[in-house]
Amino acid sequence: MDARTYPAKATPKSLRTRARILDAAMRLFAEIGYHAATNAVIAEASNLTRGAMLYHFATREELVTAAIQHIELARARLFEEAAQASAGHGHGDASGEAIDAYWALLHEQPFVAFAELEAAARTDPTPSVPTSSSNAAACGSTSTPIRPSSTAASRRRTSHGTQPYRRSSQR
Asked: What residue ranges define each of the domains in the chain, with the CATH number in brackets?
């Protein structure tokens, strides 16, 4: 019997537990990093047993996928709050205020956790970090996973692959 056979119920208690797990995952990704924040560490930080954790997230991939969505929602809320706060000001340098607001957001836990997941996604196949819809809208792009191509990843893993970033000392 696994979590896929009997998925977590959508009861209020189950939803609160799931939110507690995802909050802990976001906090730990930001504080100690993606690789150090193992499922066991996240379960302990959530005050859950291994079995309770497995009830909600049977695999690391399931947890990371849910955590990414949770982090994206938290980032979107912070973007909205910042936009509403700056809309009321209407005086001063708008671009300067926007830069200051964004700089402050980059230091918030959801943004730090997202940056950690982006960095981990370069080399680990588990986190598929989407570009946030709010970030994508600001940049004019669509929501796509941030992953190295399989060709680029294989070049990094093999010693005989080409090294496109290495400069030749001779010209």
From this structure: 12-157 (1.10.357)
